[in-house]
Design a protein that fits this description.
about 0% strand, Amino acid/polyamine transporter I
Amino acid sequence: MKASHLIKKTSSGIITGGADNDPSGITTYSITGATTGFALAWLLLLSTPLLIVVQGMSAKIGDVKKKGLTTIIEEHFGRKVAVISMVSLIVVNTLTIGADLSIMGSVLNSFITFIPSVVFIPVLALIIWYVVVFENYKVLSKLLLWLVVVFLAYIASGVLAKPDWGLVLSSTLIPRIEFTPIYFATATALLGTTITPYLFFWQTSEEVEDHTPKSEARNKFLAVAPGFIFSNLVAYFIIISTATVLFFSDSPIENFSALTAADISKAFIPIAGNGAFLLFSIGIVGGGLIALPVLAASSSYAVAEVFGWSEGLGRKVNNAKGFYAVLTATFFIGTAIAILKINPVTALFYSQILAGVVAPPLLILIIIISSSKKIMGEFVNNTLTKITAWFTVGIMTISVVLMFASMFFSDIF
């Protein structure tokens, strides 16, 4: 692989990884550290290779079939299954967009207090919508690579927080299960925001839109790995920092619903001091600028594929009216959700729990497709990939089941 091509693929992977660390991701990892300490560090370590395998399979499907994921699901499982998959994706994406816009508006309101957050929300949505529809989102996303600096600040802050590294290491390498609703809810949300449904569809569609040669399908796991390793490394240090600053503080957070954006921003105190909230806000708004177009577009791809419409962010509006109509509607509904008087931190957390519930059935379809020699030919999954993928489904399903089971024994929700 030529150096220039490798750089292109790596930067693309970092952008996709950055989308995985959107406001919902940052918030979920922060809640994980603030409410469970280092207890779920092992699960994030485990989820990293699982995420790489899942996204690698999604990318391979796009490379080999040159079709979006929803189209392939319809071809091999029928229209009903495709529609259910589409609707599930849209519900999760739209709720996440609403929650993302809500916290973005909230942090901006903290700096410009005379403008209500309900004013910022539609303005942000309109700006992002305009760039995606009438400008070039890929140019914007590459410009936002500077956000890597903000994400690196999380790593530095985690180190400067001076955690108990012995406890961090043992929590990372030795699973510690706590049979409480908050533990399993947080585990489900962590898995849902890491191995997240919208990235399955986005990854496949981007491979098609980029006209990636079929021959590159063999290298997909290697191609997507750098971005997602970096993404999860950042997430790991978000957990370390928030756990040290909040969970192990003199006044620990007893319930995630009591958390605010100001609380979560304290993760940056070890490196930024009084500027912690500013740095946090830059990460939230910048992460949203990367992720919201990906969320909206993945919904549009799914709908366009079900109805056989022209699709793609590379197309002009007149050449893909249905695709852009869905994208516009997604932003509009997401904005309507965002202006409801709901705690944005709580809304983001619940949206990622829902993502964790929706992901396993979608993963089953992806595994069956990418493991079928009839569909994938010589690019079919090998034994190790299949074992890893089914293990991913298993651990996500167990987390969901234990979450619902534990709810019967507590009134935490």
